[in-house]
Design goal:
4-stranded mixed beta sheet, binds flavin-adenine dinucleotide, binds NADP nicotinamide-adenine-dinucleotide phosphate, alpha+beta, globular, 8 helices, 24% helix, 20 strands, 5-stranded antiparallel beta sheet
Length: 334
């Protein structure tokens, strides 16, 4: 296990923001974890650093999760349950599933980060969420050291939400995540431009999970800013869900506003709201709003987390004033 004092976290977050950790522990096994658990305090956990905004130095210990391992724990005629160690890279898990012809996570191809962070916000894309394939996870309490299995229900998954972002915030280290993957999966191509992309690639029905994954990768690579080129953490805000009445009031002034039905109310793309407040492409110094994707805040080089946080406050305020909707941040603020 590598241990570093006064370590720079810049290489470990996709915004490429500079902040220091008092001590950085690079965990490569559960043994490493058990070794550091009694001696560390004030712990923060980092996976791929693709959903955090570092606004200041961390006065405490940061655990960098690099714990690997993939194990099939149950196999039936129609599904397998696979336990992934939490430091596995999410897209490597998708690739593993595709190589074994197990379906369910192909629409979630190319999401950055680790599998241990995936339950935190119930990652989702192209009509599929982690909760659709989630079976259980194992976690360890950072103070009591108690090990606990969380069922689907105990995780309280919601839209980009889970119990780990609320009641149990920063209380557990997620050690492994077990997914139930299908041998004969239902292919989902009804969302966004997947169908168009499959046709453009020359594929015909019935589509395979590998073809769906390829289409998703193509779309994502063409639309989203690559953090290797411009620092970002994907969507900075969640898409708000508002009441039908509220939506109709906005629609009277803006008949072109896009919307999607939600379980209660109407989901409105935050990117549309932000763009209509004039923020798309905004740049001040080295921080701003991406020119092609208004939901993505960016660090062009030497920005700091506080400036990006303040920009997010200004955006929230202007959307609130113009549309009466209070945007919620999706990114975790440190
Ligand atoms: P980190 O940023 O390292 O951590 C995020 C939070 O989880 C932190 O609070 C951290 O303390 C906590 N955490 C991490 N690991 C553990 C653990 N083992 N135990 C307990 N707590 C832990 N998200 C989507 O949902 N859908 C998308 O389509 C999507 N696309 C993206 C595209 C881009 C270009 C980028 C940069 C981000 C995107 N994201 C997306 C956001 C992000 O990739 C996901 O939220 C991802 O799951 C974060 O994983 P991570 O390992 O990088 O988490
Ligand atoms: P898009 O396809 O241009 O759609 C814009 C927004 O409209 C999305 O945020 C999506 O909401 C919603 N939407 C589109 N079609 C929908 C449908 N059929 N039913 C319900 N909602 C629909 O979005 P995009 O920016 O290119 O992203 C594509 C997918 O990748 C989305 O699912 C998005 O969430 C995901 N993504 C997430 C992040 C992140 O950091 N969280 C970053 C990039 C992409 P949803 O977001 O609820 O799906």
């Amino acid at each position: 296990m590598r241990i570093q004092e006064q370590a720079s976290l810049q290489p470990f977050n996709t915004f490429h923001l500079e902040a220091k950790a008092s001590t950085l522990y690079e965990l490569e096994s559960i043994d490493d974890l058990l070794q550091v658990l009694p001696t560390t305090s004030n712990i923060r956990i980092l996976g791929g650093g693709s959903n955090v905004l570092l606004t200041h130095d961390v006065q405490g210990d940061v655990w960098l999760n690099r714990i690997k391992g993939i194990e099939v724990v149950e196999e039936q005629d129609d599904y397998v349950r696979v336990k992934f160690a939490s430091g596995e890279v999410w897209h490597d898990c998708v690739r593993w599933a595709l190589d074994h012809n197990y379906g369910g996570i192909e629409n979630l191809s190319l999401i950055p980060g680790t599998i241990g962070a995936a339950p935190m916000q119930n990652i989702g894309a192209y009509g599929v969420e982690l909760k659709d394939v989630f079976y259980c996870l194992e976690a360890i309490h950072l103070v009591t050291k108690e090990r606990r299995i969380f069922s689907h229900e105990a995780c309280a998954f919601g839209y980009r939400e889970s119990v780990f972002k609320h009641d149990l915030k920063q209380q557990y280290f997620i050690c492994s995540v077990t997914l139930e993957l299908k041998k004969n999966p239902i292919i989902r191509t009804d969302y966004g431009s997947i169908q168009e992309e499959l046709q453009r690639l020359g594929y015909q029905k019935p589509y395979s999970i590998q073809q769906v994954s390829e289409a998703v990768i193509q779309i994502r690579s063409s639309k989203l800013p690559d953090p290797n080129d411009i620092g970002n953490a994907g969507s900075f805000f969640k898409n708000p869900v508002i009441t039908q009445d509220h939506f109709q009031t906005i629609q009277q002034q803006h008949p072109e506003i896009p919307s999607y039905p939600a379980s209660v109310g109407v989901k409105v793309p935050a990117a549309w709201l932000i763009e209509h407040c004039g923020w798309k492409g905004f740049r001040e110094g080295d921080y701003g709003v991406h020119a092609k994707q208004a939901l993505v805040l960016v660090n062009y080089g030497q920005s700091n987390g506080l400036d990006i946080f303040k920009l997010s406050e200004r955006i929230i305020l202007s959307v609130k004033e113009r549309f009466g909707i209070e945007l919620q941040r999706e990114v975790n603020i440190w």
